[in-house]
Write a structure and sequence with these properties.
By secondary structure, the chain is α+β, with helices and mostly antiparallel strands. Helices cover about 15% and strands about 50% of the residues. The chain is built from 2 helices and 4 strands; from the N terminus they run H-E-E-E-H-E. The model has no long low-confidence stretch (mean pLDDT about 75).
């Protein structure tokens, strides 16, 4: 393996961005009426995904394509409304980052 191979490997890895997030929210506006109206309900969310940044040279912007999948957990008292299988969601996205963006996200 040469130094050029190592540099190419680092460039490829730098274009992948792994995303992961776990969060706990307390929702109060799930139900406007009924026995759960106004209740504070803890809802947990686990998300994972990735973004792949295209190699575009030294242009003014960088483009990435990605996806994110999420799963939610909630108390049993919400199962009649949301089902017993839980809630799952996914998102596909395109990200455009201008050259001046130093956020690293």
């Amino acid at each position: 393996m040469t130094h050029r191979d190592v540099a190419l490997g680092r460039e490829i890895v730098a274009r992948w961005c792994n995303l992961a997030e776990r969060r706990l929210d307390y929702l109060t506006e799930l139900f406007e009426t009924g026995p759960l109206a106004g209740d504070i309900v803890p809802v947990s969310k686990l998300s994972a995904g990735y973004a792949y940044e295209l190699a575009m040279g030294k242009g003014p912007a960088r483009v990435a394509f990605g996806g994110l999948a999420s799963a939610y957990a909630f108390p049993d008292r919400l199962k009649p409304a949301y089902g017993h299988q839980g809630v799952k969601s996914f998102m596909l996205f395109i990200r455009l980052r201008l050259a001046g963006d130093k956020s690293g996200n």
